Each structure stands twice: as structure tokens, then as C-alpha cells.
């Protein structure tokens, strides 16, 4: 049996796939097979007319169609995201699938955000003539069948956009709204509640949560769109691997508690940094003075003042933020001075990461560092940053 619809997300993450239990194991087994035996009963050997419609969650044939691990992964995410979910090899494969489904003539997207999304748009443009227009374009520049791609919170800043505003804009001119909600997974944000037509996630981040898998996810409300997405995936072949699907399912069990803990720790860190940045003390030997010497700006959804922000993200503002340091040299060196923050790209894992973002995205301010808060004690992370700041200042003064 599946849990009631009104169950808490943490309960859904553990039981939404119970109806797919094939064995008595409490922990779902790892299914590595790519092919499955046909029935022994000759009467059951009936040629398939529609593999998608005829799939019942257990009649597996070939893993490019459906596979046990991926089916369970999608079942749990369907419950958490509130729509029909299709999984892919990567987040960019998911975006490509959405654009293949909708086949727009124009796509409205911000100049910032994840650089990979712009690369996908560029490839599709080369194939179909898709035209990219600014995110804040006039509604007159969009028409029936076009798309607005809204990444919120946006990479790498962690600041957020008003989903409802962009949904109304899209629907007024017959366009669809795709929301990339990677930076705000359940329970932080529900784009469908504010008018999104398709919700996208790079599941490599929080859904994976342990920096050990690649995957992408699309969620839709329309059953016909879900069926077409599955049919397209069958043809294009960008299916999530068996091992990755199992790792993703394992990770979803703790998604709610991981995201809430990381988001709370991020909030505590940000409050400390913001208070230090706003401090007016003139004493040079204080922690606040040390922070102000190294740090110039902080960007995060929690620091935005618009009233809709707290409505849209009522359960927290996400564990990723960006800081602008006072010099490029500080930004380049700080990650090398830290013990707990790993200097690496990506985000959403149990470990805290920091990245001199210029190494991954040449468009950003070279003084910018992206910070992804993990599950370490926040005061330990604070002390790690402090000793890193102190090391930078001492080296500069030497």
C-alpha cells in the first residue's frame, strides 16, 4: 500500500514506492539486469501495442523502456514533486527532453544561471532554429507554444525569482513555463503551486545528495506529456543507469531531513556573515573586522526583501549562497585555506563545498565564490571560514 496523499514528505520518501515491492527485503535490492525474461505461459506472450500504456510497474522487458530501480526512484519523486516524473542521465538531458517535447520557436531565458542550460539551448537552436530572447522580454515577443525557462533560485547566486509572475506572463501568451528548481528541492519550493508547467531538477545535486551519481528529472502534471516524454526517452535512449537509479532511491529516503538541516545551517552561517558585514565596530582585532576585510557582498534568497519570497519558499531558502570577496586574489586563495569546505564544483551533497566559480563559468565575477552548505555543524563551518579569512589577511600583511 502507498501512504495517504496528505502524508509528510519524509513519509512519502520512505513509502511512496511500497506498491512496487517484489521481494521481502526491507531495503530494495539492486537490479542490474538490462533485460528480463518473457512469461513462461504461452497465453501471456502477446505482442505489445503500447509499452508505455501497458506497463504496470512489474512487467519489465528491457531497461531502455522501464527498469525496477528507476521505476521506484520515479515513484517516490512523483509523490514528492506532485506530478508525473521521468528520470534522465543528467539534468541537461532532462532540459533537452523538455525542449524536444514542447518544440518552441522562442525560449525566454536569463543571461545568467547555469551555463549548461544555455549550451543545451544553443544545440537545440542549431537543430531547430530556436530563438533565445531575454528572460524579461515583452510578452509580445512570445507566442503560442513558446517557453520561458526560469531557474530559481538561480545559479550561482542563490537568489530567487517570482514563479507566479512568470507563469502568468507565459500563460497570457500561450507559452509554457519550465522551472529549474534544482537549488530548492522539496520541501523548500513547489513550483507547481505557483503555476509551473514543467519542473526540472538536476538530480545529481540534492536528490543524489552524496556526490556520487548523475541524473536529471522532469515532472509534469499532464499525463499525455508524461507519456510522450517516456516515448521520446525510449527513442533517444537517455535513460538513467541501473546503479544510479538505486543510489538515487537510497538518497531520497533522507532528502527531507538533509535539505532541512543544510538549509538551517546555511541560514545560521548567513546571519553570522551578514551581521559581521553590517557591524560598525572600528576595532581591528574583532571577527567582524576580519570578515569585512575579506568579504564585500553576500547573495541569497533569504536576504531578499520582496514579500512573495517568503510565501514561495516558506520552508527555507536553500543551502547555496554566493559571496563576493574584496579582491580576486582572496577569492582564488580562500578555498585552499579551508579544512571543512571542499574546493569542488557541484552542490547538494552531505559535505560542504566551496568553488571559485570562475573555474567553471567564465561569465561570473572573478571575485565570486559559490558556497554549498552540507551537514557539518554550522559553528564548525563558521570557524573554518574564520580561520581561512584570518590566513588570507595575515598573508597579505606579511
Rg on CA atoms, Å: 23 Å
Spatial order of the strands forming the largest sheet: 1-7-6-5-4-2-3
| Strand portion | 5-15%
Average pLDDT reading? 95
H/E series, N to C? HHHEHEHEEHEEEHHHHEHEHEEEH
Q: List how many beta strands DSSP finds.
A: 12
Distance between the termini: 67 Å
Poorly predicted residue ranges: none
Helix content: 25-40%
Helix/strand-derived category reads alpha/beta
Please tell me what the overall shape is: globular
In this structure, how is the largest beta sheet organized?
7 strands, mixed
Number of helices, counting only DSSP H or I runs of 4 residues or more: 13
Main features:
alpha/beta; 7-stranded mixed beta sheet; 13 helices; globular
Question: Can you put this structure into words, describing what you see?
Answer:
The protein has 398 residues and is an alpha/beta fold. It is built from 13 helices and twelve strands. It has helices spanning 9-15, 51-54, 68-81, 91-102, 115-128, 163-172, 223-236, 242-252, 255-278, 287-294, 307-312, 328-333, 378-397; strands at 84-88, 106-109, 131-134, 147-151, 176-180, 198-202, 216-220, 295-299, 320-325, 342-343, 353-356, 368-372. The strands form two sheets. Strands 1-7-6-5-4-2-3 form a seven-stranded mixed sheet, sandwiched between helices. Helix 5 links the parallel strand 2 and strand 3. It is globular and about 85 Å long. The termini are far apart. The mean pLDDT is 95.
Amino acid at each position: 500500500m502507498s501512504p495517504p496523499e496528505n502524508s509528510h514528505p519524509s513519509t512519502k520518501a520512505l513509502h511512496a514506492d511500497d506498491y512496487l515491492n517484489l521481494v521481502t527485503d526491507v531495503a530494495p535490492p539492486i537490479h542490474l539486469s538490462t533485460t528480463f525474461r518473457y512469461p513462461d505461459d504461452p497465453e501471456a506472450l502477446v505482442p505489445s501495442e503500447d509499452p508505455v500504456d501497458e506497463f504496470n510497474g512489474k512487467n519489465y522487458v528491457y531497461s531502455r523502456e522501464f527498469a525496477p530501480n528507476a521505476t521506484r526512484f520515479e515513484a517516490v519523486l512523483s509523490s514528492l514533486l506532485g506530478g508525473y516524473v521521468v528520470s534522465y542521465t543528467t539534468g541537461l538531458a532532462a532540459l533537452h527532453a523538455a525542449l524536444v517535447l514542447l518544440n518552441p520557436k522562442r525560449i525566454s531565458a536569463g543571461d545568467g544561471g547555469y551555463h549548461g542550460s544555455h549550451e543545451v539551448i544553443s544545440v537545440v537552436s542549431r537543430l531547430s532554429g530556436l530563438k533565445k530572447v531575454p528572460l524579461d522580454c515583452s510578452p509580445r515577443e512570445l507566442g503560442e507554444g513558446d517557453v520561458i525557462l526560469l531557474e530559481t533560485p538561480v545559479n550561482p547566486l542563490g537568489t530567487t525569482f517570482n514563479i507566479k509572475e512568470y507563469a502568468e506572463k507565459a500563460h497570457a501568451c500561450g507559452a509554457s513555463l519550465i522551472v529549474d528548481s534544482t537549488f530548492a528541492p522539496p520541501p523548500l519550493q513547489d513550483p507547481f503551486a505557483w503555476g509551473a508547467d514543467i519542473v526540472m531538477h538536476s538530480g545529481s545535486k540534492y536528490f543524489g545528495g552524496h556526490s556520487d551519481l548523475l541524473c536529471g528529472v522532469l515532472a509534469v502534471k499532464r499525463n499525455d506529456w508524461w507519456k510522450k516524454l517516456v516515448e521520446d526517452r525510449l527513442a533517444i535512449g537517455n535513460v538513467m543507469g541501473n546503479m544510479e537509479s538505486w543510489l538515487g532511491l537510497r538518497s531520497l529516503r533522507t532528502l527531507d531531513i538533509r535539505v532541512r538541516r543544510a538549509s538551517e545551517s546555511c541560514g545560521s552561517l548567513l546571519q553570522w556573515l551578514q551581521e559581521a558585514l553590517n557591524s560598525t565596530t572600528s576595532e581591528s582585532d574583532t571577527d567582524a573586522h576580519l570578515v569585512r576585510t575579506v568579504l564585500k557582498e553576500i547573495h541569497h534568497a533569504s536576504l531578499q526583501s520582496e514579500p512573495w519570497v517568503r510565501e514561495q519558499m516558506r520552508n527555507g531558502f536553500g543551502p547555496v549562497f554566493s559571496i563576493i570577496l574584496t579582491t580576486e586574489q582572496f577569492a582564488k586563495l580562500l578555498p585552499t585555506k579551508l579544512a571543512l569546505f571542499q574546493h569542488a564544483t557541484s552542490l547538494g551533497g552531505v559535505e560542504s563545498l566551496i568553488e571559485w566559480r570562475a573555474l567553471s563559468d567564465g561569465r561570473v565575477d572573478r571575485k565570486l565564490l559559490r558556497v554549498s552548505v552540507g551537514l557539518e555543524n554550522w559553528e564548525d563551518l563558521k570557524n573554518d571560514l574564520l580561520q581561512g579569512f584570518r590566513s588570507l589577511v595575515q598573508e597579505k600583511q606579511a
